[in-house]
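Saturday, quiet lab. Running sequence design on the C-alpha cells for the scaffold JK sent over.
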C-alpha cells in the first residue's frame, strides 16, 4: 500500500478518535452533570465503531477490554458497572448529600438483593436527587457508598422518596451478577 494511503488512514483514525473523545466528554457532562468527564483517563480508553455505519458504539477499557459505556441509537449513553465505578471515583460518597445527582441510595438491608440484579422498590430508597426523571440511567449505592448495581429509573426522584410501594429502579446489572459471569 502506498505511504500516502497509510498516512491518511492513520490521520483519519486519529481525527475520529479525537471526535469520539469530545463526543464522550460532552455527552457525559450533559447527561450526568458538569465536571463528570474529568474522572476519565482518555489514555486508558479505546473506541469501538460500527462496521456498517462507522458510528461510535462502545467505549472500552484498553487493558481489560471490558465495555465502559455504550452509545444508544438516540445519542444517549448507557454506562456499565465499570463505567459508573470510573465516574464515581472522583466523588466523595461518605455523606448522602454529597452523592452525585445520578445515584440512588438504598438501605443496607437490601444490598445483597439489589447487587444480585433484582428491582429496587420505593420503600428501600433512602436518598435520591429531586432532579431524577423516569427513564434515566442511575448508579445504585448502599448507605456506605458502595456501588451495588446500575439501572434505569421507573418513576421520578421525588416520587421514589414519597411512595412506600412499587418499583423505583429496574436494575440492568448488579455486582454479584458480573462476578458470577466472570467465573
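Result came back. Writing it out in full:
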Amino acid at each position: 500500500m502506498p505511504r500516502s494511503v497509510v498516512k491518511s488512514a492513520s490521520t483519519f483514525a486519529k481525527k475520529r478518535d479525537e471526535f469520539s473523545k469530545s463526543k464522550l466528554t460532552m455527552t457525559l457532562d450533559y447527561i450526568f452533570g458538569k465536571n463528570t468527564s474529568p474522572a476519565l483517563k482518555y489514555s486508558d480508553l479505546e473506541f469501538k465503531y460500527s462496521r456498517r455505519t462507522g458510528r461510535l458504539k462502545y467505549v472500552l477499557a484498553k487493558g481489560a477490554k471490558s465495555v465502559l459505556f455504550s452509545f444508544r441509537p438516540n445519542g444517549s449513553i448507557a454506562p456499565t458497572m465499570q463505567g459508573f465505578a470510573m465516574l464515581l471515583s472522583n466523588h466523595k460518597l461518605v455523606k448522602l448529600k454529597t452523592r452525585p445527582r445520578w445515584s440512588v441510595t438504598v438501605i443496607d438491608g437490601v444490598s445483597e438483593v439489589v447487587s444480585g440484579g433484582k428491582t429496587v422498590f420505593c420503600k428501600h430508597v433512602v436518598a435520591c436527587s429531586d432532579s431524577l426523571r423516569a427513564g434515566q440511567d442511575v448508579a445504585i449505592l448502599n448507605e456506605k457508598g458502595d456501588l451495588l448495581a446500575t439501572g434505569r429509573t421507573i418513576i421520578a426522584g421525588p416520587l421514589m422518596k414519597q411512595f412506600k410501594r412499587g418499583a423505583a429502579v429496574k436494575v440492568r446489572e448488579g455486582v454479584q451478577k458480573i462476578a458470577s459471569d466472570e467465573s
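Notes for JK: Residues 93-182 form a domain with the Archaeosine Trna-guanine Transglycosylase; Chain: A, domain 4 fold (CATH 2.30.130.10). Residues 119 and 170 are 5 Å apart (CA to CA). Ask whether to fix the surface positions before the next round.
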